[in-house]
Amino acid sequence: MSYEIIDLINKWKIFAEDLDSRHVLFMFFIASTKTSTIPGISVAGPDPFSTLYTPTLDVEYLVLGKPRTIDMVPITPEGIPTPALITKAVFNLIKPSYLIVDSGVFREPKIPFISIPHKTVGGRIDEEDALPKDFAHKIFEESRILGRILSNKKMFIIIGESMPGGTTTAMSIIESLGFKGLGRTSSSSPNNPVKLKIDVFKKALARQGSFSSDYDVFRLIEIFGDPLHISIAGFVIGALERESKIMLAGGTQMYAVLSILKRLKTDLNGKIIVGTTRWIVEDITSDIKGLAREISPEVPLLYTKIDFKDSPYEGLKYYEKGYVKEGVGAGGSILTAQIIYGLSIDEIKKEIFREYERLIGSGYVKENR
Amino acid sequence: MSYEIIDLINKWKIFAEDLDSRHVLFMFFIASTKTSTIPGISVAGPDPFSTLYTPTLDVEYLVLGKPRTIDMVPITPEGIPTPALITKAVFNLIKPSYLIVDSGVFREPKIPFISIPHKTVGGRIDEEDALPKDFAHKIFEESRILGRILSNKKMFIIIGESMPGGTTTAMSIIESLGFKGLGRTSSSSPNNPVKLKIDVFKKALARQGSFSSDYDVFRLIEIFGDPLHISIAGFVIGALERESKIMLAGGTQMYAVLSILKRLKTDLNGKIIVGTTRWIVEDITSDIKGLAREISPEVPLLYTKIDFKDSPYEGLKYYEKGYVKEGVGAGGSILTAQIIYGLSIDEIKKEIFREYERLIGSGYVKENR
């Protein structure tokens, strides 16, 4: 098969049983954390400050085919474009329902989006709290309301995200909630700055003074987290209350969401899966399987076996060297196209190449062959 | 049957054919027009200025069970509560997916909602333009984008609204677009201020000087309209592009949306219906059937035959005297419960009475028996 299911305690069958009859909805949560501006932390933008614009440009490009706030598709310092291009290509094929949710982005996107009350840009966690007091709980509850009103028992909701710095705050959330996070989250760079990330966490710890992972979950998120993961966790709980089924479409970051859900004693059995890419699962600088085993063995981990070895474009071949890997629901959208819409990897790749060509044609991406 | 279908040119059957298999989504568009503050125009609030808060309080109550921005459920000067209570009661029973869209409300609601770029509160059309230059087209296009991304060919989308002053601007839109609007739109008061509404339109005309209904549709909306109806029209066109089916859940106002759609030469055959209440269809101060015949004979008009003659509460008996009648998708939500969910009028009424009782119990409504 062109995708694989890592099903640690045999829950995929329960999850999959009525999947075909459900209404598919994609949700993209966006937010910013100033943690992404720490030099060396994130390559999800041409330079540290620009990473604050990436979520906005990602979703504008996804919705409109081109960005609006700044006329620039997010690229790494090497010029490799955002993984949103994969999601966009898949959407060209399957035309699903989808929505954007702003949980606290630096610049509101210039497209219709759902606004979460109390949304706020996350602080730089090595120097300041991630969120003002009580905001983690507020953002959680507001997002839960959204999950509750939007979803129902006939829905399959695929949740993607865009927030540079997210693997750093995710690591920090996982670790602070009492799981083993350090050195386990991935990166959009092949040179995962693990040491720097751990330094950031240590500074957050030092800033905080005394600390125990038994602290209130919401307080821990305010110190060590960001607005995004707590918002997704709230949304998921609201949607599960209405019996939706959920795919967390992302890499190691989604285990920050799962660590919150587990600490809140949410029943996840047969209700939720993680969907990502081969590049994440094979990444030797992180450990998604270890995260899955420790945090949520009842949550099947799916990944698409897509590869860009035969890509005519260098920018995509870079994925095979460990660049980008995942983001903006890229892996989950491919998996959805495979599993629900029955598309082949070849059809999907052909459209990704076409979309890449289009980005070159419109001048957003330079091809350095 | 406890609902009736006025199907002028035999399109209901085409519309209904695959309805049961579609995913139901309710959308509530809210906006404000300062036209509602003209004394005597609107009773959708305890006084003219308060009508500006009504949409916000309506949707907060719908989502949370109680308002948040001000601790007050919208009432008429007589103390009769908002028709949102009907929608709320129906939602207690059917628990559908739904979303709120802000197209330009005076106060943003304190709940998750979709924000439309360029949204703006509408001007008082007897004194000033409804919208700044180019905004009608911008709001239309942004809403169309929302319709396009959110919907797909497996959806049935029911669109409700809350905007006091809406029957006045709707009348003005219909008339300015070249249909017969004057004296044909309804009111939440039994004493429909038809003369005053026509005066407002005449003042808008005089303010404008020369005028022809051949003008660009968007320019006419900027002079005579409001942000709400053009936003709904844009959304509908976007959703129809994706083959969703649509119910416009409202009274005579929805013919302002249809008049825009017709002027834009949208194909509506078998794709869209209007759903409302008996109180609107039987209203002698307006003419929904005339509007249907003239503007969109291909769009079936459905109405629920609910009555509150046997209501234990005076506030609901007032509906039988011509108060309130419709709003916040009340008629369409009852029809959806009847047609899609197979509920009986008696079950629905029982829950409406329970919800009314709850509003009395929590002190939001006084019962003057």
Strand content of chain A: 5-15%
Order of helices and strands of chain A: EHEHHEEHEHHHHEHEHHEHHH
- N/C terminus separation of chain A: 32 Å
Percent of residues in helices of chain A comes to: 25-40%
Strand order of the largest sheet of chain A: 1-8-7-6-5-2-3-4
Number of helical regions of chain A:
14
Uncertain segments of chain A of ≥5 residues (pLDDT<50)? none
CATH fold-type name of chain A: Rossmann fold
CATH class call of chain A: Alpha Beta
Number of β-strand runs of chain A = 8
Secondary structure blueprint with pairings:
Two copies of one chain form a homodimer.
Chain A: E1 3-6, H1 12-16, E2 23-31, H2 54-64, H3 84-94, E3 97-104, E4 113-115, H4 135-150, E5 155-162, H5 166-176, H6 194-208, H7 217-224, H8 227-241, E6 245-249, H9 254-263, E7 272-277, H10 278-281, H11 288-295, E8 301-304, H12 314-317, H13 330-339, H14 345-361
Helix pairs in contact in A: 2-3, 3-13, 3-14, 4-8, 5-6, 5-9, 8-9, 9-11
